[in-house]
Design brief:
By secondary structure, this protein is α/β, with parallel strands linked by helices. Helices cover about 30% and strands about 25% of the residues. It is built from 7 helices and 11 strands. It has a 7-stranded mixed beta sheet, sandwiched between helices. It has a 4-stranded parallel beta sheet with strand order 9-8-10-11. A hairpin with a 2-residue loop joins strand 2 and strand 3. The protein is globular. The two termini are about 30 Å apart. About 35% of the residues are buried.
């Protein structure tokens, strides 16, 4: 799955996803299907106001979307925003919501946002679980506030007050295809609110398929990650920059940007392994497990304290 910014051409697919919930559920309180032209106008309005809006794209089909928007237009609410997310009805429970929110939250922390609100028609256990995973807490329960499908509906508001921005973490290796991607995936899985990125001095342009496979085996999806050049991040400030190159014949990348903490945690490159398919597979698994152990120790001993 590729995460990208929405375009007006996505309106048809977004209508396909959203109108299912309009016509079949009380998740949204709209009662009439939204036309493609109306959805284009809504998308354009959010983009014109500068709000982040992302879609998850699987081979040209949108799996879900999320965006930020005003919660209330009164001036005193200017630092409070609302988050909205919808997933294809057939792709729920696959972690897509978490992936979309991770991308959205990286944009939220660039702006002057103090509080986030999520309105949820309750009961809706999956939505509550997703928002509480990102630190939201229930702030209200309004009973019988809406009437849909011949029944009064309750609505709850979940709120996240952003007291401290999580540290920005950049993980570096040479190709940004394997070790840095696995480290990125594990660190993000420990805390979905962390602002984790990875890059390479000679980025390969794609994530190693074997790395994706062995990470999937332990429940971490990195298939949507991209292999990026370190040049993309030079001008930014970082809480941590961590290099993960390993062998004696390998030159560790250097980073000239503004960094508070520079760390090196070295690992062998499993993509250099030779031998039988079984041995190569075992090398990917070994390095994966070493990365998980080392980065969990780093997270619990240093990074987690930001909370």
């Amino acid at each position: 799955m590729k995460i990208r910014e929405v375009t007006l051409e996505d309106a048809k697919e977004i209508c396909r996803i959203y109108n299912y919930y309009v016509e079949n559920t009380a998740i949204t309180f709209e009662t009439a299907a939204v036309s493609e032209s109306e959805m284009q106008q809504r998308i354009k309005g959010f983009l014109d106001e500068g709000f982040p809006y992302y879609v998850g794209d699987i081979n040209g089909k949108i799996a879900g979307y999320c965006y930020l928007h005003n919660w209330n237009n009164r001036c005193a609410y200017s630092s409070t925003k609302e988050v909205t997310i919808y997933l294809d009805k057939d792709l729920q429970g696959k972690g897509i919501g978490t992936i979309l929110y991770q991308h959205l939250f990286k944009e939220i922390h660039k702006d002057d946002v103090h509080a986030l609100i999520a309105g949820i028609c309750i009961p809706n256990e999956s939505s509550v679980r997703l928002h509480e995973k990102f630190g939201f807490k229930q702030a209200s329960h309004m009973k019988e506030i809406g009437w849909k499908f011949d029944q009064w509906r309750d609505v709850g508001h979940w709120q996240l007050v952003i007291k401290q921005i999580p540290p920005k973490i950049l993980i570096l290796c040479t190709g940004n295809s394997c070790r840095s991607q696995m480290a990125h995936g594990f660190l993000q899985s420990f805390d979905p609110k962390l602002l984790v990125y990875s890059a390479g001095t000679q980025a390969s342009g794609k994530v190693n398929p074997k790395a994706i496979e062995v990470m999937q085996d332990v429940g971490v999806d990195i298939s949507h990650y991209t292999s990026d050049s370190v040049e993309k991040y030079i001008g930014e400030q970082w809480g941590y920059v961590i290099t993960v190159c390993g062998g004696a014949n390998e030159n560790c990348p250097t980073f000239s940007g503004k960094v508070k903490n520079r760390l090196h945690i070295g690992f062998d490159d499993p993509s250099e392994a030779t031998g039988t398919p079984e041995f190569i597979q075992s090398e990917y698994i070994r390095v994966r497990d070493e990365i998980k152990k080392a980065f969990y120790e780093l997270y619990t001993s240093k990074i987690k304290s930001y909370e």
